[in-house]
Amino acid sequence: MSTQVEVATDSGGVEAVRERLRREGALARPLRHVFTLLTRQPHSLSELVRICRTPRRTVEELIRLAGEDVEHGPDGYRLRDSVHELYRQHVRLDVPEPARTDEEVERLLRDFVATGPAPCAALDHVTATPGTALRRAAWLRDNYDLSRAHLLLLGDHDLTSLASCLLVPELRVTVVDLDERILAHIDGIAAEYRLPVHTVHADLRFGLPPALVDGFELVFSDPPYTPEGIGLFTARAAEAMADGNSRLLLAYGFSPRTPALGHKVQQELLRLGMVFESIVSGFNEYHGAEAIGGTSALYVCQPTGRAHKSTGERQAIYTHGPQSLESGGEPPGPEFLRAIGETLGTEVGELRSPGWQRPLRTAGAVPVFDLRADPGPWLLRTLLACNADRAGFLVPNRHPDITSEHAQNSLLRLVGAKYELRFQRGKPDANHALVVADRNKHGGGVAGHLSHRAHGKIGNIWREALIANSDTPLTKREAREHVEALVADSADLGLRLIDLPRHRLDALLHTEAGQ
């Protein structure tokens, strides 16, 4: 290279570059690669564009931001020797050595899957292979800047969250799932291996927890393979994605015998304002899913400015079970409602729809909530959301919370500070049961305070509960510090009580401060 060089521009430097990379977030990886190349040898602008696969205007902007740190000579652009170390420290040019090899991660994943919960057909669970979970994690590592990234998984029966954190320890992950078993399993492993995974309970058919809105650059999901399921999960992902640079990674497959179905799903994604940045066929492999050849593609979707961020509430999104598209639950007839009323001792004109995103306030008649399609978690969540003095909850007669004395006592342990429960199995007919809840007149202490305000932020409500129930005067600061010392994961303080996985909800309500 000639010793005669010109400076790319007369201002800028490493701090300007760092700020540009920060704004790019998880998509900064190719931008960092530009500076990796500039430390090695001179490169022309065209070479930088081609090798880093980055638009010319972006490369020009980076060189301009670097200012005097970049020289331009006859052979191209290069970083001045005197600033190499500075850029290595602050622009993270070097990829750190992995904490675990791919083979070790896959071996651990096989054990995690073997000890995890069985697939639930009603939730369209088909387990991906451990190799698939590892492949997903490697894709994230190799295509995105994960040094400060926060990944959201909408559903994680395949334990992709654990694979990602094992492979990239600096990555933060949040998992949202309906299945309490999965959340407890992930929490247990994350605690044992000290992985930065935070789990949240939600049924996406009713909404996304507010704490998760607009906070994520990367969202991954392997949703139900119906147009309705894909549409719902994509819309919830759009709600969760941060403005600006964000990506949705979606697993989806269809049989070559039914291309019309694949076309319908792709149309739904386009309708929701997503553009396909990449489609990698055969990326995901499953133990099952034989109708689609046991594989599905990886869709990498970029949201446009027209991305839809809400679809309202949907229930029929699955291919099996009581909430499949074909199930079409029948509305209750007059005789059925009359039998419910006889059990409650009051007239029942209609059933209330399920859902707990907002407080379920009622006036006048005793409300009865239609939980006939409850896959398991609805009863507890609806009890927490309801603030009626008395309410009825219609569930399947074999609902897991009522089929044994142990199950009933476990539910009472969670809501007893708020409600007294009566379990009327076999009523109004042999296929259903009515759970009758009457307000606990004894107050319930701190746990009761929390349970009656299940939609407030836990940190705020818990602090207020301690102050209201303390035998001695307690300042807000003292109460806040006490709560922060008791909670295992500070991220829980920004959630609502109804967003906590069941096992952590139980632990919170029965800590020293929950009594």
Please give a quick description of this structure:
By secondary structure, the protein is an alpha/beta fold. The chain contains 18 helices and 14 strands. 42% of the residues are buried.
Report on this model:
Keywords: Methyltransferase, Transferase. This is Methyltransferase. One of its GO terms (molecular function) is methyltransferase activity. The protein is of the alpha/beta class. The chain folds into 4 domains: 80 residues, Arc Repressor Mutant, subunit A; 207 residues, Rossmann fold (3-Layer(aba) Sandwich), CATH 3.40.50; 106 residues, no CATH class; 65 residues, no CATH class. The protein is 37% helix and 16% strand. The chain is built from 18 helices and 14 strands. The strands form 3 sheets. Strands 6-5-4-7-8-10-9 form a 7-stranded mixed beta sheet, with helices on both faces. The chain has a 4-stranded mixed beta sheet with strand order 11-12-14-13, with helices on both faces. 42% of the residues are buried. The N terminus is likely disordered.
β-strand number: 14
Can you give the mean pLDDT?
88
The first-level CATH class of the largest domain is given as Alpha Beta
Unreliable stretches: 1-7, 317-321, 323-328
Fraction in helix: 25-40%
Question: Which fold name is given in CATH as the topology of the largest domain?
Answer: Rossmann fold
Tell me the major beta sheet. Answer: 7 strands, mixed
**CATH architecture descriptor of the largest domain:** 3-Layer(aba) Sandwich
What would you report as the Rg, rounded to the nearest angstrom? 27 Å
Shape category: globular
What count of domains describes the coordinates?
A: 4
Total DSSP helices = 18
Tell me the strand order in the biggest sheet: 6-5-4-7-8-10-9
Structural class, by secondary structure, is alpha/beta
Strand content: 15-25%
Alpha-carbon distance between the two ends: 74 Å
**CATH superfamily descriptor of the largest domain:** Vaccinia Virus protein VP39
